[in-house]
Design brief:
It contains eight helices and no strands. The chain is mostly helical. It has a domain of 126 residues: Orthogonal Bundle (Helix Hairpins). Helix 2 packs antiparallel against helix 3. It is rod-shaped. The chain starts with 5 loop residues before the first helix and ends in an 8-residue tail after the last helix.
């Protein structure tokens, strides 16, 4: 079943059927309401699609930020290892240089007297002790600096990841809410369309009653009041069924052709009586689209194939 667009609703024309035709003012008023509701829902659906795209872009940005934080953490770990290795190499170099000086001093001291040798040994021990202390201090400072860098990187990572996770949770909750609102709008749109089709299918046919009305010859050209079907009669399915049963019973007994007396309706615009025409066959109800569980057809294809400018092409009909 073809999905009706706002343009289709605007340009649709009802076929007239003599005295049994619809009142143009009522039909136009109803079509105005249908078009306004349909146009508003189409606008809201377009806004929802835009919001969904914004949410998708934000989620992609958050994922990029998380990847950058991870790369920064890996880089901090690499810098820590590099600093430690560099400090160890520097300390080892200073230690090797000091040991080389000690060996040279010992060789020089061995050639001197015992007093000089003892003095040199004491000085060598002090130099070695100082060198080891300095090397240990350098290594400790390097470890502390690397640890501080790693702690800072971890703190930044935890803060960013926590914020990203919280924002992602909020965005996912809002996305679920937007999807629920979209489903609600689709349901309202489907109900409006189904109600319109049901109202048109329930319109009664008074052709049989009109054929039995006796009109005096002298009053053939006189204007008569025409009875119109009101919205309450269309909505009253039970009253419609009772009227149909009564008309079928009267049609089954053609011998008793008594004039049909209609109840006096509220004052309506006077129209000139015309010869009754044969009532056209009522079109069969359009089959429901089995592809959509809500009976609304493929609304996604319709929304994707019709822009808002296409909907507004027929605004002159309602002005």
């Amino acid at each position: 079943m073809k999905m009706l667009t706002p343009k289709d609703l605007r340009n649709h024309e009802f076929q007239m059927s003599g005295r049994n035709g619809y009142l143009a003012a009522d039909v136009d008023e109803y079509m105005d309401e249908v078009y306004s509701s349909y146009d508003q829902m189409f606008r809201e659906n377009a806004e929802i699609v835009r919001k969904l795209q914004v949410l998708a872009d934000r989620l992609a940005k958050y994922k990029d930020d998380e990847e950058n934080i991870r790369n920064a953490l890996v880089e901090a770990q690499r810098m820590k290892n590099s600093i430690i290795v560099e400090a160890q190499q520097k300390a080892q170099g200073q230690l090797s240089e000091t040991e080389e000086k000690i060996r040279a001093a010992r060789e020089s001291v061995d050639a001197q007297s015992g007093e000089i040798l003892d003095k040199a040994r004491v000085e060598a021990d002090e130099i070695l002790k100082d060198a080891r202390a300095e090397a240990a201090e350098i290594i400790e400072r390097a470890n502390k600096k690397a640890t501080d860098l790693l702690d800072t990187a971890n703190a930044i990572y935890e803060e960013k990841v926590g914020s990203v996770a919280e924002e992602a949770a909020k965005e996912e909750a809002y996305l679920a809410k937007v999807k629920a609102e979209s489903a609600k709008i689709r349901k309202q749109l489907s109900d409006t369309y189904q109600m319109q089709m049901e109202l048109l299918s329930f319109a009664p046919d008074f052709t049989s009653e009109v054929e039995h009305v006796e009109v005096p010859e002298e009053a053939e050209e006189a204007p008569v009041e025409e009875t119109f079907v009101t919205g309450e009669e269309v909505l009253g399915e039970r009253a419609y069924q009772e009227t149909q049963e009564r008309l079928e019973a009267e049609a089954a007994t053609p011998a008793a052709e008594e004039p049909v007396v209609f109840p006096e309706p509220d004052p309506e615009p006077e129209v000139v009586e015309t010869e009754p025409e044969e009532a056209p066959e009522e079109p069969a109800p359009a089959p429901a689209d089995d592809d959509d569980d809500d009976g609304f057809g493929d609304i996604d294809k319709y929304l994707a194939g019709n822009s808002y400018e296409d909907i507004n092409e027929g605004n002159k009909y309602f002005k």
